[in-house]
Amino acid sequence: MAVSVRLEPLLEKELELTAKRMGVTKSQFIVSALERALGRKNPYDLLLKVQAEVREPLPESGELISSTKAAIRSKLKTKRDANQADWLAYQEAKKQGKVWSGSDQETDAP
Fold first, then answer.
1. Are 15 and 26 in contact (CB under 8 A)?
2. What is the sign, positive or negative, of the torsion defined by CA atoms of 94, 98, 100, 103?
3. pLDDT at residue 52 in the model
4. CA 5 to CA 34: how far, in whole Å?
5. Mind listing the pLDDT tens digit for each residue in 31-51?
6. Rg of the chain over all Cα atoms, to the nearest angstrom
7. Does the pTM exceed 0.85?
8. Into how many domains does the chain fold?
9. How far is it, in rounded angstroms, from Cα 11 to Cα 13?
């Protein structure tokens, strides 16, 4: 069933930009907004449904944050260790009079 709605130009432009940003058509955006407004589409109910299907509770926000922090720290430590090893290799090559051009790529100076 088709329905016509008159919108102010500014509101229509905002609708167009938001729908484009979300990757949906204006019609899909409007239908979704109406469903939420009428209580037919509740994001919390959808979350509960997905949790029931997966049968895995979502981590508490504190757990999620701490696991994310741990992952980031681990990646940073690995990168720092690699950079430190490169720096030490560079210093050793410099002492020996060699040209160092990257990780494990040492050549004799010309």
1. yes
2. negative
3. 79
4. 13
5. 988 888 887 877 788 778 877
6. 28
7. no
8. 1
9. 5
